[in-house]
Design a protein that fits this description.
CATH topology of the largest domain: de novo design (two linked rop proteins)
Number of strands: 7
Structural class: alpha+beta
CATH class of the largest domain: Mainly Alpha
Radius of gyration: 20 Å
CATH architecture of the largest domain: Up-down Bundle
Shape: elongated
Number of domains: 2
């Protein structure tokens, strides 16, 4: 039976039988991996704690027909402890791995792994506000998936901005002349924040107002769920009102 190794981020786990788990992981080289970890729910398991959500590990697998099997696990970065100990951090990380899981259902690039790893590390070290980390991750993950939001030029007419009307189904801002009735108008500093989150410009993002952050959160969540064509359950557990 062929075997392989990959660096992985654990996305989620499910119980299997009396002592096993199915582990869903995002691999640096292989993308989405689903594998059985045998005996990890037993008290004496040496690898169970290394295969919890948000852990980063070097894993050796046996390749199977439907599910692979975990053979060996070496921890690379233990992020789970810090993340799980803080509820806002935990709910944010849960949303990030759920989105990564959905975005890599039908393919991947190494960019997905690197982006998620960077986001979880920033979260665990409290580098920025958790909501800003989440929204930056979501926007940049959608870019990798091919859904870059347009924030400068009207997506309908090509007219240069600044524009504040944002049409989710069109993929970005539109000029007032062509904005459909009821189109939300964003605060100018919200558009600035979205651009900063997209570019990873933390000096700008960290300095933005709470009003801009609140408005951007709603736009980012709606934009993600529109393109994923499904709800993101973990977002419902995040306190988006501050």
């Amino acid at each position: 039976m062929p075997s392989y190794r990959d660096d992985v981020i654990v996305l989620r786990t499910h119980k299997l039988g009396e002592a096993d788990r199915i582990i869903t992981m995002l691999g640096k080289s292989r993308g989405k991996i689903r594998a059985v970890a045998k005996g990890v729910r037993k008290t004496g398991s040496r690898i169970g704690s290394r295969l919890e959500p948000f852990m980063v590990a070097d894993v050796q697998f046996y390749e199977g027909r439907n599910l692979d099997t975990v053979q060996q696990v070496e921890t690379i970065t233990a992020l789970a402890g810090d993340i799980v100990a803080d509820y806002p951090m935990y709910t944010t990380a849960s949303a990030m791995v759920e989105i990564a899981d959905k975005l890599t259902d039908h393919g991947h690039t190494s960019g997905h792994y690197a982006l998620l790893l960077g986001g979880l590390k920033a979260l665990a070290t409290k580098a920025h506000d958790p909501s800003l980390i989440l929204d930056s991750y979501v926007l940049r993950a959608l870019v990798i998936g091919g859904w870059t939001p347009e924030l400068d030029t009207c997506v309908i007419t090509g007219e240069q901005g600044p524009h504040t009307a944002f049409v989710i189904s069109a993929g970005g801002v539109v000029s007032d002349a062509v904005a459909p009735p009821g189109t939300p108008r964003l605060r100018p500093d919200t558009v600035t924040l979205l651009a900063a989150l997209l570019a990873g410009n933390w000096a700008v993002a960290d300095a933005t107002s709470e009003q801009a952050r609140n408005e951007s959160r709603g736009i980012v969540a709606a934009y993600a769920q529109f393109h994923l064509e499904r709800s993101i359950r973990s977002l419902g557990h995040i306190d988006r009102t501050e």
